[in-house]
From TrEMBL, chain A:
Protein name per the record: Tax1-binding protein 3
Recorded superkingdom: Eukaryota
Gene Ontology BP terms: cell-cell adhesion; establishment or maintenance of epithelial cell apical/basal polarity; neurotransmitter receptor transport postsynaptic membrane to endosome; neurotransmitter receptor transport, endosome to postsynaptic membrane; receptor clustering; regulation of signal transduction; Wnt signaling pathway
Record-linked InterPro entries: PDZ (IPR001478), PDZ_sf (IPR036034), Synaptic_Scaffolding_LAP-MAGUK (IPR050614)
Keyword Acetylation among UniProt keywords: yes
Organism: Aldrovandia affinis
A GO cellular component annotation in the UniProt record: adherens junction
Residues annotated as domain PDZ: 15-112
Xref: PROSITE patterns: PDZ
GO molecular function list: protein kinase binding
Entry keywords, A to Z: Acetylation, Cell membrane, Cytoplasm, Membrane, Nucleus, Phosphoprotein, Wnt signaling pathway
SUPFAM superfamilies on file: PDZ domain-like
Location within or outside the cell: Cell membrane; Cytoplasm; Nucleus
Membrane topology: Peripheral membrane protein
UniProtKB/TrEMBL annotation, chain B:
InterPro entries the UniProt entry points to: AHD, Cytokinesis/Rho-signaling, HR1_rho-bd, PH-like_dom_sf, PH_domain
Residue span(s) of domain PH: 285-392
Residues annotated as domain REM-1: 1-69
Gene3D superfamilies the UniProt entry points to: Pleckstrin-homology domain (PH domain)/Phosphotyrosine-binding domain (PTB) (2.30.29.30)
Protein name according to UniProt: Rhotekin
Superkingdom assignment: Eukaryota
GO biological process, one term: mitotic cytokinesis
Positions with biased composition (Basic residues): 521-535
This protein's GO CC annotations: actomyosin contractile ring
Species of provenance: Aldrovandia affinis
Region: Disordered, residue numbers: 512-564, 590-658
Keywords: Coiled coil
Length: 131, 658
């Protein structure tokens, strides 16, 4: 995840679609988030850049909808249903995820392993070509 | 002489051909566009192309006419005086264009109703050089139209005329309620107000407003193809000359075309502010240099010092030796050459035979005279000539020669950040099946042929304005993604210096120093970790195994788990041990906060792997404790007070269950 202030953000992202689960009166997704513009980024154990104030997945409930959809702990959420999550407060993020009239949330998440995998594969590709 | 003219001719021809090709491409693009923004941009390029073509054609005509005149005039007297002095050229830069608007206060504070939007841009023309600024969308929420572009014209003479033209095009959708909130939609669709009704009528009758700008007063030398799509109209213009140049922001008057009835009308205040600066060559370049002897009258009147003099701008800089100038050492001294300076060639110095030049300046109240001598008459003549030329240039460029004005060379396009309004991201979709379309950009409208798509790709990639997300649907598509990214990188390499490399390319460069690179110690990573003891069951052990999945990473290459921690996190985790926190770790296998500190033998950059996972919350996060049930919501009562306290504690790193 490269983050240069003032420049557009670039990331390799994965699309994750989570169908909310109804539990009585609540619709839940089955994961927890941490981070936000109003939070202390230094305490985020998942972020590579300790000034990153993005929203991260801090845990994924086992057997829950998020886990089924492929969300992993440590993922950084970039978008929720098209809404940006890189510059939001913690509460705004929570609200965007827990809208009552939405059954499905489509997330764009990024994680280091994804980036590494693509980079690794590109480098391998390069190496092959050079040979 | 003829050769030179022919070269010039062919240059212009090439330029004309280039612009004609651009125009054809733009017309095709315009015809294929579906989105309003793209159409507006394309129409803007079209207008610029047309303007350029016309300018080149008129220049070509002028050159041909001059050629003919030259051939006709055989007698030397007709050819004009040969010793006419020509002033030096210079760079003219215009930047920070700002055009204030003057909305009626009722309009400005109105919150309802459709937003009358116009797309505007400026065309700047100096001699044969034509540039356009970026397009800006203007509506009544703006008080000024600002153009961030800085444009530098090279090779401008002091008699230049810089023409600034403002074009605008109404960008409202058909007056349906496409963008208005639903509540107003019904109101709007049922009735149109008086002003909007006028506008609708005006837009429907193309002849009602001032005619479409087709290139200005010059007779049309080429038929301009009539293309569908948005048309820009000239809204205002002005001309700037040397007299308008200052090193700071100044306001100039605008002449406005059109009136309120036109669809493209904007209430302009009537002036344009900008910074117009110039750097004449005489101020920036070395106009003359050579060895000189200087007699300083202050001391021994008969002493001559050998120096190497360089005439640049308003100074004659004297170095001890020529090498000093190249080495940029401190000069011996500097003589001012400005409008107040008087330079005379004295006939003969009684003691030497050569001519000498005397330079007089007023420093403070005193008059100081330096006397220069050269080695030969020819040199003296050349120096005098250089001084005369310098004075002439200064008289032509006037205030530009008082001081060197700063001109910033605009760097290759800096991508502007995406605003929330635009929100059009390009997604590269990697579809599971290897269809040829999976390689192209997927725009919202699928009915675009591959050729146009390629045009759009190159057009928009150069601008680089948007955030770039490459989306992977499943881990299997890594290869396809890699291919796409590789192709992009190659394209950028081929195109060379056309623009700064997009930032995402840095993601994929090999950076051996990267902290989280998992290249080398890959095999080692896994081994030491396995023999770690499992977390000892503690008071909150109910969740030690279950909640967090212990699943392995997907089958992508065996990298180290990302070591994403800083020392802070590790410290806070060690602190957090007392609170228990979460035991389950997806990332660090088996080692929990309660286990021993990480082994020093780990070859990966060993910031604690153990301390991952939410121990950051020094308060002991509230949510995990509550999941005795599979999907717990916040348990009211006992938990809520703790929740509240946790939320209010500024040190805590909040986590919320969703």
């Amino acid at each position: 995840m490269s983050f240069i202030p003032g420049q557009p953000v670039t990331a390799v992202v994965q699309r994750i679609e989570i169908c909310k689960l109804r539990q009585g009166d609540n619709l839940i997704l089955g994961f927890s988030i941490g981070g936000g513009m109003d939070q202390d980024p230094g305490q985020n154990p998942f972020s590579e850049d300790k000034t990153d104030k993005g929203i991260y997945v801090t845990r994924v409930t086992k057997g829950g909808p998020a886990e089924d959809a492929g969300l992993m702990m440590g993922d950084k959420i970039m978008q929720v249903n098209g809404w940006d999550m890189t510059m939001v407060t913690h509460d705004q993020a929570r609200k965007r995820l827990t809208k009552k009239n939405e059954d499905v949330v489509r997330l764009l998440v990024t994680r280091k392993s994804l980036e590494d995998a693509v980079r690794h594969s590109m480098i391998q590709n390069q190496a092959q070509h050079q040979i | 002489m003829n050769n030179f003219k022919d070269n010039q001719d062919s240059d212009i021809q090439k330029k004309i051909d280039h612009e004609i090709r651009m125009r054809e491409g733009t017309c095709k693009l315009l015809a294929a566009c579906s989105q309003k923004d793209q159409a507006l941009e394309a129409a803007k390029s079209l207008l610029t192309c047309n303007t350029r073509i016309l300018a080149y054609m008129s220049e070509l005509q002028r050159m041909k006419e001059a050629q003919i005149m030259q051939r006709v005039a055989r007698r030397p007297s007709d050819a004009g005086p040969l010793d006419d002095r020509l002033p030096c050229k210079g760079k003219v830069a215009i930047s920070d264009l700002r055009i204030p608007l003057m909305w009626k206060d009722t309009e400005y504070f109105k919150n309802k109703g459709e937003l009358h939007r116009c797309a505007v841009f400026c065309v700047l023309q100096l001699g044969g050089q034509i540039y356009d600024t970026d397009m800006v969308m203007v509506d009544r929420t703006l008080t000024d139209i600002c153009f961030d572009n800085a444009i530098v014209f090279n090779d401008a003479g002091p008699g230049f005329e810089l023409r600034v033209e403002l074009y605008s095009c109404c960008s409202e959708e058909e007056f349906s309620a496409g963008n208005a909130p639903r509540k107003l939609a019904s109101k709007l669709s049922s009735s149109l107000g008086r002003s909007s009704g006028k506008k609708v009528r005006a837009s429907l009758e193309p002849g009602a407003c001032s005619p479409v700008y087709n290139g200005g007063g010059a007779p049309l030398l080429l038929p301009s193809p009539s293309v569908p799509g948005p048309k820009y109209h000239l809204l205002a213009y002005t001309s700037l000359t040397v007299a308008h140049i200052r090193d700071s922001f100044r306001t100039h008057d605008l002449s406005i075309c059109g009136n309120e009835e036109c669809s493209y009308w904007l209430p302009l205040y009537g002036s344009v502010c900008c910074r117009l600066a110039a750097q004449p060559d005489c101020m920036t370049q070395k106009m003359m240099s050579g060895s000189l002897k200087v007699k300083q009258l202050v001391e021994d009147p008969q002493s001559w010092t050998n120096i190497y003099g360089v005439l640049r701008g308003t100074h004659l800089i004297c170095y001890h030796r020529q090498e000093d100038e190249e080495a940029r050492a401190e000069p011996a001294f500097t003589i001012s050459i400005n409008k107040e300076t008087r330079i005379r060639a004295t006939e003969k110095d009684p003691l030497s035979k050569a001519q000498s030049i005397s330079i007089s300046n007023h420093y403070g109240g005193e008059e100081v005279t330096h006397t220069l001598a050269t080695d030969s008459r020819g040199d003296t003549q050349r120096w005098m000539e250089a001084f005369w030329q310098q004075f002439y240039d200064m008289s032509q460029w006037k205030q530009c020669c008082d001081d060197l004005m700063k001109i910033e060379i605009p760097s290759p396009r800096k991508p502007t950040p995406v605003t929330a309004k635009q929100g059009s991201l390009y997604h590269e979709m990697v579809t599971p099946h290897p269809a040829p379309s999976s390689e192209g950009l997927l725009l919202q409208d699928n009915a675009v042929s591959a050729e146009i798509r390629a045009l759009l790709t190159s057009y928009y990639n150069d601008r680089g304005k948007k955030s770039h997300f490459t989306v992977i649907d499943t881990a299997d598509d890594l290869e396809a993604v890699t291919d796409i990214l590789k192709r992009h990188m190659q394209e950028f390499e081929l195109r060379g210096q056309l623009g700064a490399n997009p930032h995402w390319m840095s993601l994929f460069e090999e950076a051996p120093g990267r902290r989280v690179g998992g290249h080398s110690p890959r095999p080692h990573c896994r081994a030491p970790r396995s023999p770690r003891p499992r977390p000892r069951p503690g008071p909150q052990s109910s969740e030690s195994d279950s909640p967090c999945s212990r699943r392995a990473w997907p089958e992508t290459p065996p990298h180290c788990r990302p070591r994403t921690l800083s020392l802070d996190a590790k410290l806070s985790s060690l602190q957090g041990r007392g609170y228990g926190g979460l035991h389950c770790q997806c990332q660090a296998p088996a080692a929990s906060s309660s286990a021993q500190p990480p082994e020093p033998g780990l070859s990966c950059p060993s910031f604690a792997s153990a301390s991952t996972c939410s121990n950051s919350s020094s308060e002991g996060s509230t949510t995990p404790e509550l999941d005795s049930a599979p999907f717990p919501r916040s348990a009211p009562g006992r938990g809520s007070l703790r929740n509240l306290r946790a939320k209010l504690d500024p040190r805590a790193w909040l986590q919320t269950q969703v």
